[in-house]
Amino acid sequence: MSTDEFRAKALAWLQQNAKPFDENSQGSSATLEESKAFQKGLWEAGLAGITWPKEYGGQGLGTAEQLAFNEVAADFRMPVGPFVIGLGMPAPTLLEFGTEEQKKRYIPPMLRGDEIWSQLFSEPSGGSDVASLQTSAVRVEDGWLINGQKVWTSGAQFSDYGAVLVRTDPTRPKHQGLTMFIVDLHHPGVTVRPLVVATGDAPFNEVFFDDVHVPEDAVIGEVNNGWAVAVAMLRYERVTIGTGVRARANPLGYDALVELVRARGLDGDPTVRRVLAQVAARESAMRSYSAVLHQEAKAGLPIGARGSAAKLAGAVFPLWVSDLVQEIFGEELALQTPDMLPLARSILAAPGGATAGGSNEIQRNIIAERVLGLPKDAGVDKNVPFNQLKLSK
Ligand SMILES: Cc1cc2nc3c(=O)[nH]c(=O)nc-3n(C[C@H](O)[C@H](O)[C@H](O)COP(=O)(O)OP(=O)(O)OC[C@H]3O[C@@H](n4cnc5c(N)ncnc54)[C@H](O)[C@@H]3O)c2cc1C
């Protein structure tokens, strides 16, 4: 099938199964069951895991097909939110580090929408310095016992599995005693408590582990080599966040803003037109950068710190647009009129993007050290055994 035929197939399926972006569909949200059914439909239509190997449920196609899909999908509301983390981060990490059994067991159900995954790195003692985490796993006769607490875990309240980074050897320096486990989040020792934010949603959770038993074959990669697995997962996270499909339905994106501006007769105002032109230009630059990174990743070229540049751009953009639209729409943003509500909610959610997936400061540090070649952080605790460090609780 040529790329054009694939694009036509994707478009036909989306026209039948997804709502196009238009004013009437703004603000509608799908239930978890609807999301699962949609993901299953995508997979059955050959539109999920487009570039992934066939033996693990993927389609075995190339970047051209992925980009063609992204292009047509941007015009539709796709209720795939619950799968973004699993398919964006744990799944590619499993493809890179997992055993054959793990790949065959876990990737197809994720692609089919049957199982949802979370990523559990951050802890109350700090998220930027992930390697200082305190949740531990100790060896028992038939596997490991996990105890501790994670926080900010997106989607844990509806997830089935988590990729959980824990400390397995506190006598080693902080980066060297970590291990990544696959944990069944329905285990009776796992408690998930949703955290409600300013928008009224509960996008993330606290997750507590009390004597959670995991078998030996739940280790992703090698015991005490979890840092390498975590670094890979964070790299996938940056690329996923920074290069995600920018749907027309994004309330802070150009298309949605143009509709709001037109509805208010502001489209003739030269200042508004200049702002919209700037938004369109930045959006287009980010889309092109995403396309390049996708193509290079597929060709096996290292994305490295450019994933941080994409993530930073994706986090700065909504904050920047938030300021601009407040100048255009002013008080009307607070009135919660139906067409303004999605925009108001996106403005409230924008600062979260500057923290999620590694804060803007951390991305800037990475770019400074690895792209600009500036001196590295001193890392005074880097070689000290973890159990000799003074820890914040
Ligand atoms: C919407 C959202 C979703 C999230 N989802 C998940 C998830 O699913 N799984 C998960 O594990 N985590 C998740 N997180 C957590 C996120 O990864 C952390 O919040 C983030 O890494 C920062 O950690 P922290 O909040 O502990 O802040 P801290 O690490 O305590 O940092 C506090 C401040 O200090 C700055 N800072 C820290 N260190 C440095 C430094 N070396 N140089 C310069 N500045 C520094 C930071 O930029 C920040 O402004 C999510 C967060 C958000 C907001």
TrEMBL record:
GO molecular function: flavin adenine dinucleotide binding; oxidoreductase activity, acting on the CH-CH group of donors
Named cofactor requirement(s): FAD
Domain Acyl-CoA dehydrogenase/oxidase N-terminal: 4-114
GO cellular component, one term: plasma membrane
Record bears the keyword Magnesium: no
Regions that span the bilayer: none
Record key words, sorted: FAD, Flavoprotein, Oxidoreductase
Domain Acyl-CoA dehydrogenase/oxidase C-terminal: 224-372
UniProt keyword Oxidoreductase, yes or no: yes
Domain Acyl-CoA oxidase/dehydrogenase middle residues, every copy: 121-212
Family annotation (InterPro entries): Acyl-CoA_Oxase/DH_mid-dom, Acyl-CoA_Oxase/DH_mid-dom_sf, AcylCo_DH-like_C, AcylCo_DH/oxidase_C, AcylCoA_DH/ox_N, AcylCoA_DH/ox_N_sf, AcylCoA_DH/oxidase_NM_dom_sf, Mycobact_Acyl-CoA_DH
Family under the similarity heading: Belongs to the acyl-CoA dehydrogenase family.
Designated name of the protein: Acyl-CoA dehydrogenase, C-terminal domain
UniProt organism field: Blastococcus aurantiacus
